[in-house]
Amino acid sequence: TNALELQEKLAKMNESFFERYRLEIEQGKLVNIQTMKQGDKIYYDDSCHRERAGTLGGFVVEKNGLEKKYALTSSHLFPSENLPAYTERYPGIRLKIGKCVFTTRDNCMDFAAIEMNEHIDCDVFFRGVDGKKTNARVYEENMESLCFVHKIGAGSGLTTGFIVSSEYYDKLFGSENHIFLVSGADGCPFSSVGDSGSLVFSRSCGLRENYVNVVGMVSGIYHDYCEKGENEGASFGVSSSSGNISCCFRISPALDLFQRTLDIAVKFKEDLSFTSSSENSS
């Protein structure tokens, strides 16, 4: 009897609700904001310069267990701290992912770090040329031994190239710099517009070593047709007989400066077990 009485009361409440309120069905579209990952587009909130969007090169996390996540990109995309960082998954739909907490003001390093918002889902693992998770270590050795390098950019995706100058000197950069130049393999450009911030990496030589070497970051493009005023989107412009040449900088000194300035310790997120030859990973 009690169950029947309760059911009758609920029915009367429903009738009263629908008499009091008018319900309308609205049509909408469910939008799935995907996980942020290496190679995604990133920009700061400046609608007048949306074309300055670049690449989320990859993630580092704090070593102290707090698991704060930092996205690495170029400082010419984020010229000052506290700028909000956005991505755009669909036309007209933007998502705030964090804010810039560090940016360099040094000609020889074009580096910025974005502290990701806690609610943003991030694939923090490094991805190699096959798209699979892999360990990553900061490469600090001589670049002369590297055969091919790769990058995953928001502009041109995955590309392969080779280092044509491991130490490039120009009066713009001063006597001490960390600039190197990369040419695309098979006649294809190594980078294009939108690729600034892409991490440059190389696969390890040993067949049993399950990591990649993170060498540097893409900063700009050298065009052989570049003239004054024609290449405002690139960071640098000089004449080159080799065609499209990408200007990159070593990532090691940039990460060191970032850690010293914020008094933190960061690392690339580890996925697989390192071999004994990679114990000095960062």
**Pattern of helices and strands:** HEEEEEEEEEEEEEEEHE
Q: Rg from C-alpha positions?
A: 24 Å
Q: Which overall shape is indicated by the principal axes computed on the Cα atoms? A: elongated
Helix share bin: 10-25%
Counting H and I runs of at least 4 residues, what is the number of helices?
2
Strand content: 25-35%
Largest beta-sheet characterization = 8 strands, antiparallel
Low-confidence stretches: 224-242, 274-282
Strand order across the largest sheet: 2-1-5-6-7-4-3-16
Please report the distance between the alpha carbons of the first and last residues.
70 Å
Q: What's the mean pLDDT score?
A: 79
Notable characteristics:
282 residues; elongated; 2 helices; 11% helix; mainly beta; eight-stranded mixed beta sheet; 33% strand; eight-stranded antiparallel beta sheet
Protein described:
- This protein is mainly beta and 282 residues long.
- 11% of the residues lie in helices and 33% in strands.
- It has 2 helices and 16 strands.
- It has helices at 2-20, 251-262, and strands at 41-44, 54-55, 58-62, 69-73, 84-90, 93-103, 112-116, 126-127, 133-138, 149-153, 157-165, 179-184, 199-203, 211-222, 245-250, 266-267.
- It has an 8-stranded antiparallel β-sheet with strand order 2-1-5-6-7-4-3-16. Strands 8, 9, 10, 11, 12, 13, 14 and 15 form an 8-stranded mixed β-sheet that branches.
- Strand 10 and strand 11 form a beta hairpin.
- It is elongated and about 85 Å long.
- The termini are far apart.
